[in-house]
Every structure is written in structure tokens, then in C-alpha cells.
Amino acid sequence: MAKREGWQGWDAYAPFYDWENARTLGRRDVPFWESVALQNKGPVLELGCGTGRISLPLAKAGVKVVGIDRSAPMLERAAKRLAAMHKRQGGRGKKRLRLVRGDIRYLPFERASFKTVLAPYGILQSLVSDKDLNATLAAVADVLAPGGLFGVDLVPDVPNWREYSNQVQLKGNAQGGAHLTLVESVRQDRKKHLTIFEQTYIERRGEQVRKHSFDLTFRTLPIPTVTKRLEKAGFAIEAVLGDYRGGPWDERADVWVMLARRL
Fold first, then answer.
1. Which of 109, 123, 166, 250 is most buried (most C-beta within 10 Å)?
2. Per-residue pLDDT reduced to its tens digit, 137-190
3. CB 66 within 8 A of CB 6
4. Sheet with strand 114-119: strands edge to edge
5. Residue 143 shares a structural domain with residue 201
């Protein structure tokens, strides 16, 4: 199997990310991260901000946010949404959100410049090697002020996703008059602890049909593994949660959230 990188596929995914996300996770994690950011005060960095699904609501709530992402197409969509928000607000809060294109393994910010860093919705699972994960945690530790909070959200139970081929997962109307169908296959590389989602979006506009195909790769990251890596990188685990209301975690939980303090 060819070497895979976790960042591959996200440029192609950008036009469909919000459509799919609205039908799966939606916004159910947003109030939780808003609460975390507001309680900790100070500037917030979101890793893998994508189209602004979390960064934009944080900025709207009054939080000063920097969102970083490697994907230019994702950031272009976030910028358009940010411009629309500014227009609706009459220009208020224009400086609350800054979008930066960059690699989360090498964060281009000054030391101790953030009070909170967020890694929502499995972004750390896009780091498909120990080297990449360790580099990212070291970079976060560098830009996070002592006593600052690092919030990590993992997609649970990824290695137990059953394998299947060419199944229709979602379908429905999209903006601009298109109708989308998501056809998906899931494969497991258990030796490397990787789950590969092969996605094809079929876009129909009247008689015109286009197919958009790409792969997304995620790595298994159990809670004990992340705990050890965080502690080694200079963090103290403050809480491990099993839902977005603050409930306790166990291996069967639908949500795996970790909150850690920079020592």
C-alpha cells in the first residue's frame, strides 16, 4: 500500500464538507467549545479550522480566534463565510478571527501566544505517524501559555468501523441547485492502525452529472495513547469527557474529549 498522508484529500473534500457535516455531527459540539473558550479567556487557536465551522461561532461569541489549516480551498470557504458574517454585523468584530494557512506540525506563532488551543473533530487523527503527532503536540506546547488549556476531540472507535464497498451513505439537495449523493467505501490497514474512507460525491445538476472522488485517512488514537503523549509533551490531563455536556468518559462513549493544561 502506498504511503498515505493525513492531509491528502481535504482540498477535494472542501466543496462538500459543510453539506456532509450538517447531516452528521452538525453543530452539536460548538456550544461546548464556545464555553471552553469563554471560560479560559484570552486568544484561541483552532487546529484544522477548515471552513470555519467552529472558529466563526467563537468569533461571533466575542472570542479572539486564529484558525489554521493546510487546505487553501477550505480556508477560502471560511473566508467567504467570515466576510458574510462581517457584512451581517455591519463590520463589528472584524478582527476577532484571523485565518492562517499553515501546517499544524510547525505552528508559525510566537511562544506562549495563546491561552487556549483546540483540536476538534478528530483533527489529531489525521496525523498518521508518531513523528507527526509528537511534532504537533510539541508545537502546541510551544505556542500555549503556561496554564493554558488544550482541548482534544477524538472520533471514537475508528478501528472498529466495519469495512464495506460502494455504499450510498447520504443524499440530498445542496446550495446552487445541485443534488449530491455520497458513495463511500471503508478499508482498514490494521497493521498501521489506519482507516481509509474512499469517497465519491455524485453531483447532479439537471442532466449534467459529475463525480468527485478522493480518500481520507485517519489513524487510531486511543485515550491511553493520547494521555501518554500529552504528558510527555508537558501537559497535565484535567478531564476526559464522554459527551459535550461534561459527562464522564468510558470506551463506549459517543464522544472522546480530553482537556489538558500546559505545565
1. 123
2. 999 999 999 999 999 999 886 667 789 999 999 999 998 899 999 999 999 998
3. no
4. 97-101, 65-69, 44-47, 114-119, 144-154, 256-262, 235-241
5. no
> Does residue 92 sit in the same domain as residue 169?
no
| CA 34/CA 53 separation, integer angstroms | 12
Q: Could you tell me the CATH number of the domain that includes residue 238? A: 3.40.50.150
Give the global pTM: 0.95
Say whether 133 sits in a helix, a strand or coil.
Answer: helix
Total of domains in the chain: 2
| 81 residue type, one letter | R
Query: Could you tell me if 226 and 256 are in contact, meaning their C-beta atoms sit under 8 angstroms apart?
Result: no
What range defines the domain where residue 240 resides? 10-156+221-262
**Grid coordinates standing for 221?**
488514537
Biggest distance spanned by C-alpha atoms of the chain: 59
